[in-house]
Amino acid sequence: MNLPYAEPYRIKVVEPLTRSTRAQREQWIREASYNLFSLRSDQVFIDLLTDSGTGAMSHYQWSEVMLGDESYAGSLSYYKMKDAINNLLGMPYFLPTHQGRAAENVLFSAMIKQGDLVPGNAHFDTTKGHIEFRRAVAVDCTINEGCSTTLLHPFKGNIDLNKLEKIYKSNPAEKIPFCLITVTCNTNGGQPVSMENIREVAALSKKYGIPVVFDAARFAENAYFIKVREKAYEQHDIRDIVREMFSYGDAATMSSKKDAIVNMGGFIAMRDKALYDQASVYNIMFEGFVTYGGMAGRDMGALAQGLMEGTEFDYLESRIGQVAYLGEKLRELGVPFQEPTGGHAVFVDAKKILPQIPKEEYQAQTLAIELYLEGGVRGVEIGTLMADRDPVTRENRYPAMELLRLAIPRRTYTNNHMDYVAACLGNIHERRDQIRRGYRIVNEKPIMRHFTVELEKLEV
Ligand code: F0G
After folding, report:
1. Is residue 406 a part of any domain in this protein?
2. pLDDT in tens, 284-326
3. How many structural domains are present in the chain?
4. Is 374 helix (H, G, I), strand (E, B) or coil?
5. Is 344 a pocket residue for ligand 1 (Cβ < 6 Å)?
6. Sign of the CA dihedral running 457, 429, 386, 405
7. Which of 70, 375, 412, 441 could form a disulfide with 424 if both were Cys (CB 3.0 to 4.6 A apart)?
């Protein structure tokens, strides 16, 4: 008999979860104005809101917490982080920041000015927020296949070179501070970018004198996909793939809460001393001195260790295998989702499940609320609420897809939890015709509204 798959770790510390009744959940979600971000965590049974900062650290990482050097300047933990980043990414300069969006804030302060264009692949919402806040425009150049949930393509995060070149041709280089490559592409399903595409984007950008910046939050998961899906790399070590990926870039922003498996932290990696010097000024202003940038020494040590663990093949196989496992279970139940499954999450296709709900009533949010009511599972809407309003016209932007993201924290839940989540969605899928109305906004903020939006349930 072939031996079944088993995780390459065992569990040393456990955290109890709270169950609830449907009646309790109905009350709690009403009190939360139908915004899942407003729930208390003990009102949630299985929390798939995000894979960001929610993973389980290893005992090696916890050891680094004890070894943390809390010196204001020149902390040894900073040097551990510097070594890990140098070795892995091959970029000589780096600045610690307290999380990914802080890295965006600092780097973009140095690079983006009003009226600029930032082409790239499905910019994450905070990334787009930081671009638009500077009165610049994020231009999505993801390949068309990336916007279909059923078309099978191994690298749905790829950038369309024709779309990109059109931008380069029709605008002066001074208006394009950089091209952003997001690895993996969170917004369209944790979809990876191939090495071939990274190489071609870098070559095209070089031709037009445009730097390349990575949004590296899930770079290790991207490297895993390159290894298992791109023939030329099947024999390569994950860390060699990572090094080659970053060799095509000039800088990277990192949310370490993802692939560095820590609860808080981020950084900017840079190739150029002049850019480092410029960004350092903003880092000191917004984050902290250049050798801690908003992080405690202990967190920098755990981060350095997490970067190494996050780039181990066995770990990545187990992590991405669990995401694929949830996908398989949903397929068995006929629940449509973005295929193939991505690195960190399963993206359920709300448009297909709830076609009777008009897009103006937030299909993906409606499905997210149903899932919470069904079994206390919290996912997150990646649809019209998150897409926000056009900064100029203030009209709702309706994205091509309405998705419910089930993001899986690293090394945290078992496959029994995945079975439970799949069963909840299976039940909803069975009674989907009975869901007749969605929600309407009663209160929203002018930017990144989905975090705090308040909704009202529409009656049939
Ligand atoms: N870039 C990507 C691709 C992300 O997914 C995120 C965060 C960020 C940047 C910002 O990083 O949260 O550390 O400030 N994504 C989280 C998520 C919030 O749930 O996907 P941050």
Report:
1. yes
2. 999 999 999 999 999 999 999 999 999 999 999 999 999 999 9
3. 2
4. helix
5. no
6. positive
7. 375
Cα 233 from Cα 225, distance rounded (Å):
10
- Over 90: is that where the pLDDT of 149 sits? no
Ligand 1 centre to CA of 258 (Å) is 8
Given this model, what pLDDT does residue 52 score? 98
Tally of residues, the chain: 460
Pocket test for ligand 1, best of 123, 125, 126 (most atoms within 8 A of CB): 126
Residue 123: φ, ψ to 5°: -50, 135
231-258 confidence digits (pLDDT tens): 999 999 999 999 999 999 999 999 999 9
320 and 305 housed in the same domain: no
Which residue segment(s) compose the domain that 87 sits in?
59-309
Final residue before a domain boundary, out of 262, 282, 309: 309
- Do both 351 and 261 map to the same domain? no
Cβ–ligand 1 distance for 409 under 6 Å, the answer no
Task: Let me know the angle formed at the C-alpha of 90 by 155 and 54, rounded to the nearest 5 degrees.
Answer: 60
Q: Are residues 235 and 376 in the same domain?
A: no
Spatial separation of the C-alpha atoms in residues 318 and 9, rounded to whole Å: 10
Number of other CB atoms surrounding residue 289 within 10 Å: 16
CB 126 within 8 A of CB 448: yes
Cα 297 to Cα 66, 67, 102, distances in angstroms: 10, 9, 17
Which residues is 443 bridged to in the sheet? 454
Q: Are residues 272 and 357 both part of a single domain?
A: no
Enzyme catalytic residues: 72, 124-125, 215, 217, 258, 450
Rounded to whole angstroms, the Cα distance separating 223 from 212 reads 18
E strand residue ranges, 278-434: 345-349, 377-378, 380-382, 403-407
Contact 378, 48 (CB under 8 A): yes
Assess whether 348 and 278 both reside in one domain. Answer: no
Decide whether any atom of ligand 1 lies within 6 Å of the 282 Cβ.
no
CA distance 332 to 310: 30
Same domain, 212 and 348: no
* Six token digits for residue 17: 């979860």
